Structures
1.
Amino acid sequence: MKDNIIQHNRRFNLQWHITHRCKGTCWHCYNDISVTGCLDCDLITARKIVDDFVDLLSRFDMDGKIHVTGGDPFLHPHLASILEYIASNNIEISIMGNVTEVNNQNVQMLHDFGINEYQVSIDGMQSTHDAIRGKGNFEMTMQAIEKLKAQNIIPAVMFTLHRLNQHEIIKVIGLCNNNGIKSFNFSRMIPLGKGKKLSQAMISPLRYKDILTNIVDLTEENREYCNLIGKKDPLFIPILAEKKLIQINPENRKICSGCYLGINGLTILPKGEVVPCRRLPLIIGNVNTTTLYNIFLNSKTLNTIRNIKKIVPCKKCIYLYYCRGCRAMAYAVHGDVFGIDPQCWLQRGI
Ligand code: SF4
Ligand code: SF4
């Protein structure tokens, strides 16, 4: 059973939203504070989460990483205690936060806990980014990046992609490269939370294929870009395969890559609720009533999702065991976790 779940990656990623508090005003946020409430994880629950995670890793004999996020984790009144407890358990930590609280004192605290990665968002060049995240935020982000670099903390840039900024993604990659940033990733905007109002801003499958192709070409032409750009979206798989940059074995019947739902990741919300992925709002348990291991192994929802043959639109695709599209996107758009990934051009016969 365990081997069927943990197949292609020996690292388990836990995305932990310790608070919903946030000073940001981003248009596309998947978090909707008016729905989720302004809540912090209490310290008893926080310790239980860390203890449960240590137990899960030892049962699966895996390495693990906790991505501490929010809201803005710096707005949690006991962030230092939480980080101290995670670090005392020798678990790798990264922070996914805002830039408003990235000052010298806070960066020093991260450094003291041995944290070597902090994710910041850049959603376009200055005017586009500021239109999305608020006036002055771009400048504040560039300053935060320098403060992080000064303490040897890697600023990992995240770009949330939609119709309103898609024309600037390549420019932002260049900006990262020119500013000594070593990690760039992007996620497609999911029409969820506040982002629901932006469903018209989703990019078309054909345009998405173009963007992914351009990014792969860029990484092939320039090795620096190859190390900089993460290719975590499952839909990179068909592009990489068509360009013969990865090998697909049509006889393979084991999950090798793609969407990690039910495989090597979970997300926890501030009150201890567990969801398969932050973008898929299906609560599968609560760490206050059972263990993380039990939720991961026995959740009915996760076990249903693990049956990838249920993804009818992907069932006959040669990339089924390598891709499966984004199930959260399918759920947000069609209300069906096994539905079409609306940005897959192959499902649309393009
Ligand atoms: S049909 Fe499914 S598995 Fe195939 S490329 Fe599209 S999303 Fe990926
Ligand atoms: S549902 Fe989408 S965002 Fe979540 S793990 Fe799968 S591909 Fe990633």
Note: The first strand starts at residue 11 and ends at 17.
2.
Amino acid sequence: MISEKMQKALNDQIQAEMFSSYLYLSMSACFHNANMDGMAHWMSVQSREEYGHAMKIFGYIIERGGKVELGAIEKPPMCINLRDYGNKKRENSFGIL
Ligand SMILES: [Fe+2]
């Protein structure tokens, strides 16, 4: 059995991994929209990797007799125009696809 504190930390990590997966999936969609299929595929692969991390923790909690409690997944940032992204990059400011 795992402690309540550890169980909460692991459940929080599942949520973080799932958000990462969702964020990569969103980026994949942005690249598809920009007809950048290679990048879209790469982001999709990253999304599945993060999902895999979440599922490993999911399985570990159950294996140790704990309780999985899934939290809400935040909406990922929206795509920005790739040209805008290039301009922001030149300005050395943060931009996400
Ligand atoms: Fe991860």
Note: The mean pLDDT is 88.
3.
Amino acid sequence: MVELKIAADVLAAENDKRSNALQSDYAALGENLSRRGVDIETITARVAEFFVAVPSWGVGTGGTRFARFPGQGEPRGIFDKLEDCSVIQQLTQATPNVSLHIPWDKTDPKELKAKGDALGLGFDAMNSNTFSDAASQAHSYKYGSLSHTDAATRAQAVEHNLECIEIGKAIGSKALTVWIGDGSNFPGQSNFTRQFERYLASMAEIYKVLPEDWRLFSEHKMYEPAFYSTVVQDWGTNYLIAQTLGEKAHCLVDLGHHAPNANIEMIVARLIQFGKLGGFHFNDSKYGDDDLDAGSIDPYRLFLVFNELVDAEYRGVTDFRPAHMIDQSHNVTDPIESLISSANEIRRAYAQALLVDRPALDGYQQDNDALMATETLKRAYRTDVEPILAEARRLSGGAIDPVATYRASGYRSKVAAERPASSAGGGGIV
Ligand SMILES: [Mn+2]
């Protein structure tokens, strides 16, 4: 029996208030879609089977390098974080897995697994941390980790990643995500080639012990914390890494880790074409790696990314199973509400991409009819798919309106009474 953090009667009462309106909106949308040759039930079933992992670090309030303003009832540790994650899953039915971060979430793996089982949660990719120093470590990562000039520091960073794999194995994870802060702040500070050679050698050590059924995700980032050069700075370097390491190595695309206006959907298409798309860290940005909520700034770009994913399925790309994860920092909202809303936005982009008339698009592309080709995408994007998202949640036992239900439940004030106010400090941006 799964432990539910939102009382079943609260959820049922909130759904009752909205079920008539949903039924009528869903019927109207169904009729509209059927005129377009689309069966709404098929789309709803596919949306209900689409999941995105929640990052454990996302349920705490984030911060910037200037300050952090803690929220009410912040999780005290990984077990509180898992409880918060279970609320998101209970209401959205879109986030059954949590992505852990070591050492932030380090604890007895047996207890982690037991708590996950009790809450009905599984575990997605493990995330290692060699971009900050843990209290007990012998060597500092100030000048790098997997690419450090010092062999002992590199060995320590490799060892940490192996530990993440061990913990992951014990809790049912099947992937390791490696993001490093290594880079340089001054021209001449690092030899680009030697630094990258050292990185590749360290990653090869990690890859060597990766279990057969695991995948290794490397995550590129253009800048920050290093501001002149970054070792894994872009998708080209990321592709070289995955190609060099072997078939279990794939590239992770964090939407915020690119130059403004970069054509991310095209990067996604290239990685799919060459079998190296590992998955995503979803978020949104206006200027840089802002870590804003997915779909909050440029929902059309999110749709265009999903358009490439659905296109790949349509073309029958084999062994295509990108990992979907959220990676955001919540500074001014209740993190649970942000993650609920982001999971919905991600499903929305997926649902809209499923509505694209692909045979028609193929024809317009073949005929070089640019206007009708782009209009075909826009027609899908303009469709208000909210009734599909709500019905998918309702059918799976979730909330028709998850944010309203969350607020009605009083969960935040309940946990605020149990969890002491946390102090400022400690960001959460990776
Ligand atoms: Mn990320």
Note: The chain is about 50% helix and 10% strand.
4.
Amino acid sequence: MLDGGTKRFVWIQGLIAFGFLLVQLLCLCGCRQDSLSHSPEELRLTLQKEKSMIFNKLTSEEERVIVHKGTEPPFSGKYYMNKESGSYLCRRCDAPLFRSSDKFDSGTGWPSFDDAIEGAVQQIPDPDGRRTEIVCAHCGAHLGHVFFSEGITVKNLRHCVNSLSLNFIPEAYASTKLQKAIFAGGCFWGVEYHFSKVKGVLSVKSGYTGGMTDHPSYQQVCTGKTGHAEAVEIAFDPDKVSYETLAKLFFEIHDPTEINRQGPDIGTQYRSAVFYANEAQKRVIDKLIALLKTKGYHVVTSVEKAGTFWEAEAYHQEYYKKNGHQPYCHIYQKRF
Ligand SMILES: [Zn+2]
């Protein structure tokens, strides 16, 4: 017979064991949780890679605003009156921050937006104790301040941004100049994370491609029966980053020698694949695979012609940025 105290002790121990088991099970869902199977050296390389994020060169006036959190004089910036359709990017790191469709004339003399691209702008309390500062969530560049409940627009929000913190890409330019690249290298969360840090990459979407069914859901793709691979679709500016640079990074952030799996994620939906948009992209991939083979890598990456890219559910987009985790399942490893 167990007395009350011992029973309670056994019960609590059972609860702890159950909790531990639950955590283990969650970790077995592969990329869905951070795995601790990587060495300190691998983590160091990842951090080193992130530190090497290259920023645009700033003028002294831009530096005063972006780095030292200054403010440009009202009505002086080049975008407060801009009414063109397009996207506003971070002046320092090129991350897309605001859409022209959310811009409105606040009469303040600074570009004003009543919304930001999801996850792109971070709010932090201003040292003045009253206002809320906004910074680029990617590189920390100072953008301006956000004001609430002014009743100017339906969304009741005003991101008041310095033109000096922004770069504008007109829609017309984006549609003619930007190119697309599609890569599949296991769980799309980690692949998206790495490509979204590349200068010249304007957007990275997680989704599904290479399968038989239309509008596949995550659950359907997870069965492995739709033929789709978890993939990312990258929109990039070829004047700033080449397809070859992106393709090299692709081969360095996943293991191209694993067949139908990446680490703990197993199934054809996690296959290593490149979906090329044109013959020029295919030539680059064929060249890089041949090069890797001369280095002793038994590359199994499939090279498939790009078809429809089905965007994944909203909760899969920018997963690591939203959750503040690091993708331990996609560790950068230099191979070129
Ligand atoms: Zn930035």
Note: The chain has a mean pLDDT of 85.
